[in-house]
Amino acid sequence: MLRALLLAAGLTLFAGTAQAQDQPWPGASAFDRHRYDADQNLQAMERRRRDADFRQAEAARAHAASRNAAARIESGRAPALPYPGTRQPAPVAPARPNGGFPPPSPGGDVGQIDAWLDRPR
Questions:
Q1: Is residue 41 very low, low, confident or very high in pLDDT (cuts 50, 70, 90)?
Q2: Deepest of 33, 67, 101, 113, by most Cβ within 10 A of its Cβ?
């Protein structure tokens, strides 16, 4: 009997908590419940925006720190060595007219082609 009584008391407690989760406070109307849900959603969105702003600021700080570290490493490097010894780069050849090809003859080639095409077969 005692077990049945404890079981019934436990079930009523669970039923009471389920009802309390459905409504924000006892006696709230459906309009109040929806307004409460909207406020909860608004607060959750505000938290998400705040977290996103924090992550964006943290990324900007990390980016600036990495740029500073890269600049510090670059400034610590030894300067570039000059061109070795007395060697100089190879001289550049002067540009030749017509790309190095012989100049065209003054029109004598066309007659030879015409004569070859007009030959008897």
A1: very high
A2: 33
pTM as predicted: 0.41
In angstroms, the CA 24 to CA 13 distance is: 17
> Residues 31, 34, 36, CA angle at the centre, nearest 5°?
110
CA distance 39 to 60: 32
Q: Say if residue 34 is exposed, middle or buried (CB neighbours under 10 Å; 0-12, 13-18, 19+).
A: exposed
> Phi/psi at 105 (nearest 5 deg)?
-75, 160
Residue 5: pLDDT band (50, 70, 90) is low
